[in-house]
Amino acid sequence: MSKISSRVAIVGGGAVGSSIAYHLQSDPSFAGTISVIERDPTYARASSALSASSIRQQFSTPLNIHLSRYGIGFLRCASELLGVELGLKEPGYVFLASSAGEAVLLANHAIQKGEGCAVELLDPAALRQRFFLDLHRRSRTCLSRYRQRRLVRRTGIDAGLSPQGARAWRAVHRRRGRGAGAQRRHLALGRPPGAGTIVLAAGPWSGDVAALAGIALPVEPRRRSVFVFDVREPPGPTPLVIDPTGTWFRPEGRFYIGGTTPADGNDPPGAPLEVQHQEWDDMVWPTLAPACRPSRRPRW
Ligand SMILES: Cc1cc2nc3c(=O)[nH]c(=O)nc-3n(C[C@H](O)[C@H](O)[C@H](O)COP(=O)(O)OP(=O)(O)OC[C@H]3O[C@@H](n4cnc5c(N)ncnc54)[C@H](O)[C@@H]3O)c2cc1C
User: Fold this and answer.
1) What is the Cα–Cα distance from 275 to 248, expressed in whole angstroms?
2) 230 bridge partner residues
3) Distance CA 156, CA 133 (A)
4) What does pTM read for this prediction?
């Protein structure tokens, strides 16, 4: 088999950049070198580190379902493949639908079943019986198992790469202090130092990075807030629940986390990534409270 020999630079070391580096390095037909260029190895603002870390299979296209199922399969073997214990959990993933959304839910459910997903349709009575949710206006739900993942951090990337890949990764980090200006200059020319192929994996900042090479890419960051709350009487194993408005919650350790999708007029691109506490008062709590039995309302 002929080997592909190329110098590859991956801009961005979040879940996507790390996964590309890992899979490229693991590909027997690849004989090149890989550099991951990450501006912030603490991942303080990376979506991968700040996400709800939940993996669903309830998508509306086979492609997304396949991606997710591959990801789950990979994470099941994470301790073996990456040498790190991710602590996956499977309490499930429940999508709620109003009467208006029932047809879409049913159509998506058929696609998911066709792709072999373990999904079930539940009516409100079944949902109330299985979980603690009390749904007044929602007619149907779709439940599937999900896996919780921890970010594959730098240690995971190191463990996943071959010694050669890990050396390249560490070299990038050693050069970090003086790298930003040089990287900008090289990207402006469309080619970072010594790279034959550039992979753009800068997540929500990919539009900014593409602009360095004169490419207009319609990708921009949008702010999302995640809230932590306590529950006086935890109801037992709870899935991730997402309602038709985009409000969601799930257990996280002894607490719960939740959030919502901001209203259209309040979702500007490039807004500062600070938590919007008003969203809790205006959107998350008013949605969650009626769904909880009185004795089990979240305490906040
Ligand atoms: C609040 C929230 C909750 C979410 N919940 C879920 C969920 O439950 N399930 C799910 O599947 N998805 C979820 N997502 C989406 C998921 O987090 C993202 O799709 C995924 O993490 C994207 O990974 P990424 O590697 O593309 O981006 P990122 O993780 O953002 O990584 C991009 C990296 O590029 C780096 N970078 C940027 N610019 C440069 C540059 N110029 N030079 C070098 N490096 C650069 C950044 O520092 C960053 O580390 C959520 C997202 C958010 C914000």
Assistant:
1) 16
2) 299
3) 37
4) 0.80
Is the pLDDT at 177 greater than 90? The verdict is no
Q: Are residues 289 and 227 in the same domain?
A: yes
Looking at the CA of residue 202, tell me the nearest atom of ligand 1.
Answer: 34
Return the sign of the alpha-carbon dihedral for residues 233, 235, 236, 239: negative
Does the C-beta of 121 come closer than 6 Å to ligand 1? no
The answer on 252 and 119 residing in a single domain is yes
Residue 247: give its domain's CATH number.
Answer: 3.30.9.10
Domain termination site, one of 162, 181, 211: 211
User: How many angstroms separate the alpha carbon of residue 276 from the centre of ligand 1?
Assistant: 19
Query: Does position 162 have pLDDT exceeding 70, yes or no?
Result: no
Taking a C-beta distance cutoff of 8 angstroms, is the pair 42, 154 a contact? no
Predicted confidence (pLDDT) per residue in 209-238, tens digit: 999 999 999 999 999 999 999 988 877 788
C-alpha of residue 8 to centroid of ligand 1, in Å? 20
Reported as a single tens digit per residue, the pLDDT across 35-75 is: 999 999 899 999 999 999 999 999 999 999 999 999 999 99
**275 and 179 within one domain:** no
Centre of ligand 1 to C-alpha 147, Å, is 18
Contacts of 244 (CB under 8 A, 6+ apart): 96, 97, 98, 100, 101, 138
Quote the domain boundaries for residue 227: 93-149+222-296
